[in-house]
Design a protein that fits this description.
Blueprint lengths: L1 H12 L7 H23 L1 H9 L8 E4 L2 E4 H30 L2 H18 L8 H23 L2 H4 L5 H28 L11 H24 L14 H18 L1 H32 L3 H29 L1 H21 L3 H29 L7 H30 L2 H32 L1
Protein name: MFS transporter
Keywords: Membrane, Transmembrane, Transmembrane helix, Transport
Subcellular location: Endomembrane system
Length: 449
């Protein structure tokens, strides 16, 4: 009898009550926890600190990395691209194993701790620790990428289809708020070190990296304490985890090929993500190179984008409920095309501020709505949600690699970063075409019904 009670309790732990407010809030706190990495490490303090300490009188912007010479910014971009490529290959296998064995929260924890500890290790980043610091920088990116995938896969499990837009928007909103809160704390140390009696100029940014890791791991305990591990798809335990992964991946791939809407959405998502993600990662560099805004103004711009993204995510969720997801995505992609054209023509900082506000509004919306739209197209009550979301995640990561490479190549080829911005419009146009085809597929399916 005692054994039966234990089995029942364990079974209940693996069940998720959909649309439960506590579960949804707990899940959203994972975005709150890890978005600090995206803002502090990817977008603001780390890039500024990295450029400053790797630019010297003796060598200019050249650095030595395990005996090879690189331009400093190229080295960090190579490290980031390498991290994205590694995860693009690894995640489909790992997610398939997680689905098959029902242990996706274990993977979520692993990547979270890896990313958080790597950020904390960046506290020791100085010029004489460059090699190890670049490795930690790449590991932090890999931790972020992996954690996001396994977190995203919970969306169809915690919310019914009609609530997924709202829940996805809630997660992004928590992320934007959490990242801004920690960013402001870090800025106090970075911009006003004299308030705290800090003499070492390198200490405030290094302390920021440490705080990101602590924040990331600490707030992740909220979803970890509530979300279940998942239900194994088989009672048989195989010792060949790679075979398990490929077997599960092949099964999901066969399902995906049969779902026209899912294939159509992934194609459109791939192309417009090239534009969205590249703009998000390259915006600060574009502003500095074309308008010479300076660090303080760039920080202000990034904060504007983060804050405006919160109502943007909520607004798109509201509009999707009234007009439909694909219609709203098409509208937002058209606005992105307009932003590329406007960005090509800007000549002063005030125009850039207005562009940043628009980008922030649609950035939160398109990310949130893309995640929930994909979730809605998945087979209902599927046990393969992590594997399905791995295809979504890999699509986005490959789009980032191609988008960033195209952006850099066009600038190298033309000598003008503005041409890189206008070229991004072509990615959005292709994505818009595939969204139109997706809309046509949806209409055909409705007629059949």
């Amino acid at each position: 009898m005692a054994l039966i009670n234990v089995i029942i309790r364990e079974a209940k732990k693996q069940m998720i009550e959909k649309n439960n407010k506590k579960t949804i809030r707990s899940w959203a706190f994972f975005d709150w926890a890890n978005s600090a990495y995206n803002l502090v490490i990817t977008s603001t303090i780390f890039p500024a600190y990295y450029t400053i300490i790797t630019t010297t009188k003796e060598h200019g912007d050249k650095v030595e990395f395990f005996g090879r010479t690189f331009v400093n910014t190229s080295l960090s971009n190579y490290a980031l691209s390498f991290a994205y490529l590694i995860m693009s290959f690894a995640l489909p296998i790992l997610s398939s194993i997680a689905d098959r064995r029902g242990n996706k929260k274990s993977f979520m924890k692993f990547f979270t701790y890896m990313g958080g500890l790597a950020c904390m290790a960046l506290y020791f980043f100085k010029l004489d620790t460059l090699e190890m610091s670049i490795i930690f920088f790449a590991l932090a990116a890999m931790g972020y990428i992996g954690g996001v995938l396994f977190s995203n896969s919970y969306l169809p499990e915690i919310a019914t289809e009609e609530h997924q837009d709202r829940v996805s928007a809630q997660g992004f909103s928590y992320g934007y708020i959490g990242s801004v809160v920690l960013q402001l704390v870090c800025f106090l140390f970075v911009l006003k070190p004299e308030w705290f009696g800090i003499v070492d100029a390198s200490f405030p940014p290094r302390l920021s990296f440490l705080l990101v890791g602590v924040w990331w791991i600490a707030f992740s305990q909220i979803p970890f304490s509530v979300l279940p591990n998942g239900k194994p798809q088989t009672d048989k335990v195989s010792t060949n985890i790679i075979k398990d992964g490929f077997s599960e991946l092949a099964k999901v791939w066969e399902q995906l090929k049969q779902i026209k809407k899912l294939k159509g959405f992934l194609l459109s998502f791939f192309f417009y993500s090239m534009g969205v993600q590249t703009i998000m990662l390259a915006a600060a560099g574009f502003a500095e190179k074309t308008l010479k805004l300076g660090t303080a103004k760039l920080i202000a711009v990034i904060l504007i984008i983060q804050l405006v993204a919160i109502p943007g995510a909520l607004l798109m969720s509201f509009l999707a409920k009234k007009w439909g997801n694909v219609n709203v995505l098409m509208m937002v992609v058209v606005i992105w095309i307009g932003c590329c054209v406007y960005g090509y023509n800007i000549t002063n900082e005030y125009q850039f501020y207005s562009l940043a506000a628009i980008v922030g509004l649609i950035m939160g919306g398109i990310q949130s709505l893309s995640r929930s739209t994909y979730s809605k197209y998945l087979p209902q009550n599927t046990l393969d949600s992590t594997s399905f979301f791995s295809f979504y995640d890999v699509t986005e990561k490959l789009a980032i690699v191609i988008g960033l490479f195209s952006f850099a190549y066009i600038e190298d080829l033309t000598g003008n970063i503005r041409f890189s911005i206008i070229a991004l419009a072509s990615f959005f146009i292709v994505g818009l075409v595939f969204l139109a085809l997706l809309k046509k597929t949806e209409r055909k399916e409705l007629v059949k019904l």
